[in-house]
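Hi there, hope your week has been kind to you so far. Please have a think about how the structure follows from the sequence. I've dropped the whole record in just underneath, so have a look:

_____
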Amino acid sequence: MLTKFQGLHAWKLFHGISHHSTTNLLYKESAALFAKIVRENLSLGTYTLLDMGSHKGELLQDLVSELNGYTLHTIAIDLNEEDLMENSAQRKIKADLGQIPIEDKSVDIDVARYVI
């Protein structure tokens, strides 16, 4: 059963803020790794970035910071409307990832971290 405390400190975890070095490595490195992949494959420019299962946008926020020099139009998709309200994405969509309400070929970069 979900409680109001579940996920309360998830933002710390998703930003790599933990007393456990392994947790820091697994979570904090994600944005740097994804940004490295983007830089290796896309020149500086304007792109649309979709964060699937975005939660409150922790990864999205870190990615935008890591991709300094790129102009990113950000879209966040999540089932939890309350979390999306705290998300910094320019466009927020409450939806199931099984039926993404986005037109084909309208996104340049998509990420889905810890989405089952």
Remarks:
- The beta strands are 46-52, 71-78, 91-94, 109-111.
- DSSP finds four helices and four strands in the chain.
- The longest helix spans residues 21-41.
- Helices lie at 10-14, 21-41, 58-66, 81-85.
